[in-house]
Amino acid sequence: MVTIYRAHGLRVIIFTDDHEPAHVHVFGDGQAKINLIGPDGFPALVWAEGMKANDLRRAVQLVHDQREQFLAKWREIHG
Questions:
Q1: Distance separating alpha carbons of residues 51 and 67, to the nearest angstrom
Q2: Which residues contact 44 (CB under 8 A, 6 or more apart)?
Q3: pTM value?
Q4: Are 16 and 24 in contact (CB under 8 A)?
Q5: Which Pfam families match (predicted)?
Q6: Is residue 19 helix, strand or coil?
Q7: Are 71 and 78 in contact (CB under 8 A)?
Q8: CA distance 11 to 5
Q9: What is the span of the domain harbouring residue 39?
């Protein structure tokens, strides 16, 4: 597990032994899994557990804003 970003009380990680499609896990008060490239080409929420709606919106926006950096990190870790 590699922490690739921290902001607004959220921690974004990539598991080193994870699988395609490229995605991140966001932890705060709860957690969410967000694909970096969804069906429309933008990040897409896969699931969320225990996250307040405001934190979830913040997590999705953060991934949207940092998507290119996160994709580069995914490729660095997973090839």
A1: 21
A2: 34, 35, 37, 38
A3: 0.96
A4: no
A5: DUF4160
A6: coil
A7: no
A8: 6
A9: 2-78
Q: What is the pLDDT along the chain (79 residues), one digit of tens a residue?
A: 999 999 999 999 999 999 999 999 999 999 999 999 999 999 999 999 999 999 999 999 999 999 999 999 999 999 8
- Structural domains in the chain (count): 1
Which tokens hold the place of 3? Answer: 């922490």
The two tokens of residue 39 are: 């069906």
How far apart CA 18 and CA 25 sit, in angstroms, is: 11
- C-alpha gyration radius of the chain: 11
Tokens of residue 58, six digits: 């913040």
